[in-house]
Amino acid sequence: MEISAMTRPSILRGGVATGALAAALLCLSPAAQAQSLAVNPINVLMAPGQMATLLTVINQGQAETAVQIRAFVWSQKDGIDVLTPSDDVVASPPLTRIVPGGTQIVRLVLRKPVIGREATYRILLDQIPAAAEAGVVRVALRMSLPVFAQPTTRVAPKVSFHIERDATGSYLVALNDGAHHDAIRDLTLSTANGTALKLEDAQLPYILAGATRRWHIAPDAALASATGPFMLTASTETGVLKRLPVAFRP
Hints:
Residues 37-152 form the Pili assembly chaperone N-terminal domain. The chain is mostly beta strands.
């Protein structure tokens, strides 16, 4: 799950990514109040044939809060998460008010069965801040929950790695040719003789079915002189990769 003060840019097709104004006001204001929400579960996994599930949203703040719940198809293009409004998933209620200490049950319903490949969605919960008191800025929070809906047939990720170079530098590239997402954590890369290389562009660990993710390799003398193979270690949802050889892409 991602939690933000609506300050992180993202791609919302058919929508608008907001937050820069809130961040600017927060810097200028003598006081700021952030609302407090808790959501369970924070990762939603829907089993084959499952068409509905529930979220529990709790207001842990001291004031009543309004929350908007929206569903998006979640895809990845050129290593960037893309959220596209969709009615494939219906959230009910789509808008609610929760009293302090109160709980709201949100029902998520798939409108069509998942066939062939895992379907991935993001549920955005946006707090709608109340009017602020004089001298106080209320910061709206956004929660982004991943939803993984499984098809009726058994599927698995199939991730391969390679290194490529272009005019902007060198990159470690992961390609998922499978029909299920994977999550790549604790990623390290080194030369064959054990010299560690720095991977930049930290990002969320998920690589969706059919998607590609790239990590920029910081310029380094060891990288410039190395011809491969390189050694990769990582934790994935299917196991631990230890000293996996990674070569330059021809």
